[in-house]
Every structure is written in C-alpha cells, then in structure tokens.
Amino acid sequence: MPRLRHGAVLLFAALMAGLAQAGAPHALQGKVSHVTDGDSVWVRPAHGGKARRIRLVGIDAPEICQPHGLAARDALRWQVIGQQVRVQGRGRDDYDRQLRRIGTAAVPDLGAWMVAQGHAWSYRRRGRAGPYDAQEALARAAQRGLWAQAGAIEPRIFRRVHGSCR
C-alpha cells in the first residue's frame, strides 16, 4: 500500500471532516420565547438574532380550535417557555416551516414527550409509520391526554373538514 505524504494526509483529513460536517444535522442552541401551538415554538438563538419559528418534526398536535388544542399548547409551553433548548436537524414542510427536533436538559426529545403524554399524534405520511408510533400506542392504551375522550380527530382531517383555525 503506498504511503501518503503528510500534506496529502492533512488534505484527506480536512476533506473527511468537511463531509462529516456537511452530513451532520444542524444544531442551534437558544431559548424558547413563544409557543404558538402544540407543535410550534419560537426560539431565539443563544448567539443573538431574531427568534425563529420551529415546528417539531414527527408530530401533529391538535389545532388550537379543536378539542385538546389548547391543552396541547399549554403542555408544550409548560415544558419549554423560557428554557434553553437544543434544536437539531434540517428540513422544511410543505408550508416552508423549519422542521426540527427540540430538546431541553430535562426532556431530550419534546416530540416523543408530546406524543407519549397524549398531546399529539405521531406524524404519518403516505401510509408509513410515524417516528413515535410506539409512544402513541402507549398513550392510547393508557387513555392519556387527547385519548381520554373518544373520537379524537387527526389535525389533517380536522383541517380538511373545518379549515384552519386562523
């Protein structure tokens, strides 16, 4: 096997580090300044700048005007308002909102927590299982949160029938 020169080794290491960085999810540290609903928050970056609207990836919380909508928003607010959070991931939804995983020191994955507490659905798309299906099944079985009442309607169906709350 041929030996690499020192300069070539450094160049290779730099390229590999760049590739690792490019593939790594973006991370942001900040403080939650506002909770819009059960799956959307505003985070002010720790380094300064404008607050960014972030939607929790992998969940769909009830609309504010639908049953359990206010309870879902209040549960998320109770967990994060004024708290330091770590925001990870990349991606946007059909409405061009940033989709991210958010965690605090106490709750590393708020999406998983919201679903486990019965405040949101695990987001399914095109018939595929959602990322928090196990947490949703447990919440349903325990009749937690929105599962305490019969007839919970998924937000996407609610919006199709009733339109947006706004």
3D architecture notes:
- With 166 residues, this protein is of the alpha+beta class.
- It has one domain (23-161): Beta Barrel (OB fold (Dihydrolipoamide Acetyltransferase, E2P)).
- Helices cover 33% and strands 22% of the residues.
- It contains five helices and seven strands; from the N terminus they run αββββαββαβαα.
- It has helices spanning 6-23, 69-80, 110-116, 133-142, 155-162, and strands at residues 27-37, 40-45, 52-56, 59-60, 84-88, 98-103, 121-122.
- It has a five-stranded mixed barrel. A two-stranded antiparallel ribbon has the order 4-7.
- Helix 3 (110-116) packs parallel to helix 4 (133-142).
- The protein is globular.
- The protein starts with 5 loop residues before the first helix and ends with a helix.
Secondary-structure topology with pairs:
Blueprint: H1 6-23, E1 27-37, E2 40-45, E3 52-56, E4 59-60, H2 69-80, E5 84-88, E6 98-103, H3 110-116, E7 121-122, H4 133-142, H5 155-162
Parallel strand pairs: 3-6
Antiparallel strand pairs: 1-2, 1-5, 2-3, 4-7, 5-6
Question: What's the gist of this structure?
Answer:
Helix content is 33%, strand content 22%. By secondary structure, it is α+β, with helices and mostly antiparallel strands. α3 runs parallel beside α4.
User: Helical stretch count?
Assistant: 5
Question: Mind telling me the CATH class?
Answer: Mainly Beta
Order of helices and strands: HEEEEHEEHEHH
Give the low-pLDDT segments: 6-24
Give the DSSP E fraction (strand runs of 2 or more residues): 15-25%
Shape: globular
Computed Rg: 20 Å
Distance between the termini: 66 Å
Q: State the helicity in percent bands.
A: 25-40%
Tally of extended strands? 7
Q: In CATH terms, what is the fold-level topology?
A: OB fold (Dihydrolipoamide Acetyltransferase, E2P)
The major pleated sheet works out as:
5 strands, mixed, barrel
> Strand pairing plus helix content: what structural class?
alpha+beta
* Sheet with most strands: strand arrangement: 1-2-3-6-5
Average pLDDT, rounded to a whole number, is 86
What is the domain tally? 1
CATH architecture: Beta Barrel
